[in-house]
Structures are given as structure tokens and as C-alpha cells.
Write a structure and sequence with these properties.
There is one protein chain. The radius of gyration is 20 Å and the shape is elongated. α2 packs antiparallel against α3 and α8 runs parallel beside α10. The chain is mainly alpha-helical. The longest helix is centred in the C-terminal third of the chain and has 21 residues. It is built from 12 helices and no strands.
Length: 214
């Protein structure tokens, strides 16, 4: 839902002067339908926008179709749509990669998810989605028993963490450190476990207390 105001704003600013007054209304109607969980009508509304728009407005509408299907729980359709509207370096591309990774994870397409996350991390180092992407990538690696890769990702998070002040960033960073501690405990690696414990206690004391870190 957080992406909808961005899409509306982008559609407004990218429209030409002759359509700037009329263009936002269909976007607002589609957003209202989604907020009311009328998923079929909302998706049809943005598909209609995509079929009549051109240029960047068409790209936005196709992106919205992927975001809407993902929000409505249609992971299979969201994955297909988001793979088909790639815009390297373009508007909302980091968010597209994030949503694609989540949809691919839900459908069991691990390789697609890992590739999308790797591109997000590599191509968009300043993205506010980076902490969540690091956490998701580490979890995927750990789930396929690649503990070394999971710990490498955790270390990357320590070295290149983004301090944006957003609560979700802090939560994702704390979750990543907690995961690293769990992996170190499972592996019987006291040095790695101590490293995670220190960071939890210094940077995330509330989470450290919840986990009884000593």
C-alpha cells in the first residue's frame, strides 16, 4: 500500500500538460478499489490504464499491475508481471526487484528470488529497501543450508548498513543480526556468535534483551 502515493505522484508529474488535470482520477479510483480489497476491479483498472497509456505512464501502469497482484496475494501472477516490466535504472526499479523477490519466494522459485535480491543489492546500494533485501537474501541462503553465504550477507549488512532512521530498517538490521547469531549457534562458532551478540547489545539493546543475549 505504501507504493500507491508514489505511483499517483509519478503519474501526475510525468503526464503532459494537456492531461495533467484528468490523469490522476483513474489512478485514485484504482487505489480506492485496492484499499477496499476489490482486487479484481483494481487490477482491471490499472490494466485499462496500461492499455491506453504510452511512455512512462504505460510503464507505471504495468508496474502497478504487478504491485497490485502482489498486494492481492496472487504471487504467481505478480511474479510473471514483474518479470515482464523490467526497467533497469528506472523509476521504482528497486521496489520492482523487491516485490519480484517476494513473489518468487512465495511461489518457490528460489533462483529467481535470489537473482532479484542480488540485483537490488548490487545495483541500488542506496535503496531504503536494502536492509530488508539483505535479510531476505540471508534467509534464503540459510534455508538452502548455505551458512557461509548467509553469514557473508550478515557481514555485508554490518559494513554497509543504511541508517535512514526508519523503524523498518532498524528492525530488519536487528533481525539480520539475530539470524547471524542463530546460525553461529547452530554451527558452534563462538567467535561469530560473540560478534552478533556484541552488535545486538550495542545497536539493538531491546532486541538483545528479548533474545536474552549475554
Amino acid at each position: 500500500m505504501a507504493i500507491l502515493p508514489l505511483l499517483l505522484g509519478a503519474a501526475w508529474h510525468l503526464s503532459d500538460s494537456s492531461s495533467v488535470v484528468s490523469r490522476p482520477r483513474p489512478w485514485a479510483q484504482a487505489a480506492d478499489l485496492l484499499r477496499n480489497r476489490n482486487c479484481g476491479a483494481a487490477i482491471s483498472a490499472v490494466d485499462a490504464l496500461a492499455s491506453t497509456a504510452s511512455g512512462q505512464d504505460a510503464v507505471l501502469a504495468r508496474l502497478a499491475g504487478g504491485f497490485y497482484t502482489r498486494s492481492c496475494g496472487r504471487a504467481d501472477l505478480a511474479e510473471a508481471r514483474l518479470r515482464a516490466v523490467e526497467t533497469p535504472g528506472g523509476l521504482l526499479e528497486d521496489w520492482r526487484l523487491w516485490e519480484l523477490a517476494q513473489a518468487a519466494t512465495d511461489t518457490g522459485h528460489r533462483t529467481v528470488a535470489e537473482t532479484a535480491l542480488a540485483r537490488l543489492l548490487g545495483d541500488y546500494p542506496a535503496s531504503p529497501l536494502r536492509p530488508r533485501a539483505l535479510l531476505a537474501a540471508a534467509r534464503l541462503a540459510w534455508n538452502r543450508s548455505d551458512s557461509r553465504r548467509a553469514l557473508e550477507i550478515a557481514d555485508l549488512g554490518r559494513r554497509n548498513s543504511i541508517d535512514s532512521g526508519a523503524a523498518v530498517d532498524a528492525a530488519a538490521q536487528a533481525d539480520l543480526e539475530a539470524l547471524a547469531g542463530q546460525i553461529a549457534t547452530t554451527l558452534g562458532d563462538p567467535a561469530a556468535r560473540a560478534r552478533s551478540a556484541r552488535r545486538l547489545m550495542v545497536d539493538f539493546p531491546v532486541r538483545a534483551a528479548d533474545l536474552s543475549v549475554v
